[in-house]
Design a protein that fits this description.
This protein is α/β, with parallel strands linked by helices. About 40% of the residues lie in helices and about 15% in strands.
Length: about 280
Amino acid sequence: MAYKTLETDLSDQILTVTLNRPDRLNAFTPTMRRELVELFDDVDSNDEVRVVVVTGAGRGFCAGADLAGGGETFDDSESAKIEEHRDGGGLVSLRIFQCLKPVIAAINGPAVGVGITMTLPMDIRLASENAKMGFVFARRGIVPEACSGWFLPRVVGISQAMEWVATGRVFPAREALEAGLVSRVLPPDELLPAARELAGEIAENTSAVSVALSRQMMWRMLGAQHPMEAHRIDSQAIYSMGASADAREGVTSFLEKRPAAFPLNVSRDMPGFFPWWDEPEF
């Protein structure tokens, strides 16, 4: 599929997605929002994609919402009632949250506003030494969006989350590393190779269905009230996967000391109990 604001490259089962508005530091627009949602719809249905890597073109990752519209940039009162309005960043975050494939952010430069909140439902965040991040909403007279009120405290804790949100300051990649927002900080020319190496380790060595289940089991247990909720899902998942062709291949390949060739595909072989949750309505 051709996109106006994204570039895509699929090789070795890794889909590299590049936010591609470099003249505007890849600022977020309604078109980019729509195309990201469509892209992740395609990702889930394409068994050739095992891992997604998201990065930015040029010197930025994403400078946040495009402010070319001036002071009315965030005013949607003419087109929607308050009870009907859907935050565009939230639509992207929710779609990434629902994704069946692991998603790696390779944050190559400035990532502020929605440029950083959209990465929160991604599974792993790597950053360039040149990256700067900021939850700058209060400095623009608005509030955090893209479901970041749910994601950010779970990633870095409530105290760090509130410090960044209340001050709205921009901070360097090293601070993000110390707080756990990113897992590694790398020289600029090593960032994308490191992201692809990590993606390749997933694609080459693991069961696609196992990873898809594990991703949802981890994320959805963040809101669980008791470990019994995890135990119920763990029990169904290990029962289903234990009897699967992937489990037989995983054990046999280990005993035979050879690479595994897992036969199951996410598009058609998810177990019968999946999905086990009810999606809340807006």
